[in-house]
Structures are given as structure tokens and as C-alpha cells.
Amino acid sequence: MTPSIVVAISLVIFLALVWWKGRGAILDMLDKRSDGIRHQLDEARRLREEAEAMYADIAKKQQEAAATAASMIEEAKAQAVRIERDSQAALQATIARRREQALEKIGQAESEAIREVRAKAIDVAIEATRRVLTAQMAGAQGQAAVDAAIEELPRRLN
User: Fold this and answer.
1) Do residues 144 and 133 touch, judged by C-beta distance below 8 A?
2) Total structural domains in the chain?
């Protein structure tokens, strides 16, 4: 026998002994490793399902947020239209009220001007009458008639 054959036979015997004595330990080690891999795969599958559920939840929330934002925008537009309409109505009311106030002031000023003109006309008429009567009526009798007429004149004009 050649040394190569002896080494080959010894190697086979050694491997057979190792297999026969260490088969349980090797299989246990391989089982543990396959259980670890299976456990990692299960954990990865569970994490993936959680991630998909979270993604679906986030997508749903995003859609809800978009719908809420759209409704808020529509509400804001409607409110802006209402505010504009109310502002226009308030502006028109203010303009009408100020116009009425201006017309009232004009009327009051006109009435005041008429009163002043009448008062001035009365004063002028009284003064003119006094001068005419004074010139026509000289003496004590004329003076008494003038004084009576002057006192009665304001009552008759009003």
C-alpha cells in the first residue's frame, strides 16, 4: 500500500468516526442555524407587514389631510366671498348714510341762511321804516306813532 492510500483510508475512517460520534452535534448545530434563519425570516416578514400597514395608514392620513385641506380652502373662499359681499353692503350703507347726513347739513345750512337773510331784511326794513316815519312825522305825535309801529313790526313779520 502506498502512503496515499493509507492516508485516504485513514481520512475516511476519521470522517466516519467524526460523523458517527459528532452527527448529533453537527445536526443540532445545523438545526439551530436553520431555526435562526427561519426566525430571522419570520421577523423580517413581520417587520415588512408592519411597514406595509404603517404605509397604508400614512397614505390614508395623507388622503384625509388633502381632503381636509381642500375643504378648508373651499370654506375660506366661501368666507372671502361672504366677507366681500358684506363689506360691499356695509360700504353702500355708509355711503347712503353719509349722503343723507350731507343733505341734512345742506338743508340746515340753507334754513340758517334763509333765517339770517330774513332777520337782516327785517332789520333793514325796520331801519328804513324808522327813517321814513321819522322824516314824515315830526314832533311829539309823530314820535309816539313811530315808537308804537316799531314795537309792533317784529310781531307782524314773524
Assistant:
1) no
2) 1
